[in-house]
Specification:
With 115 residues, the protein is an all-beta fold. The protein is built from no helices and 11 strands.
């Protein structure tokens, strides 16, 4: 079983940048496709970005493409989300997901962008 812990959220102003991290433990990180979702709570999550297990491919939601960059370090068992040019519409709880045969979620980290 994989445990995921997000960090790096906070309160920033519009136009600022943040870097989120998702640290994994308890499993073989390199076999999992990883993703970021966001929402006001667990029942209201939307896809943000995904990265393949070997980091060779990534996809983004249209709303963040060109502003956010997803990456991972399999040696450190950590995934990242670099967020630039933040807007108030990016305000949400950001969750990381690990997916292989099973799906695992972290507890989320709050990002608040003030105008």
């Amino acid at each position: 079983q994989v445990q995921l812990v997000e960090s790096g959220g906070g309160l920033v102003q519009a136009g600022d940048s943040l870097r989120l991290s998702c640290a994994a433990s308890g499993g073989t990180f390199s076999v999992y496709d990883m993703a970021w979702f966001r929402g006001k709570d667990r029942e209201d999550r939307e896809f943000v970005a995904r990265i393949s297990s070997n980091a060779r491919s990534s996809t983004y939601a249209a709303s963040v493409k060109g502003r956010f960059t997803i990456s991972r370090d399999n040696a450190k068992k950590t995934m990242y989300l670099e967020m630039n040019h933040l807007t108030p519409e990016d305000t949400a709880i950001y969750y990381c997901q690990a997916k292989n045969v099973d799906i695992y979620w972290g507890q989320g980290t709050q990002v608040t962008v003030s105008s």
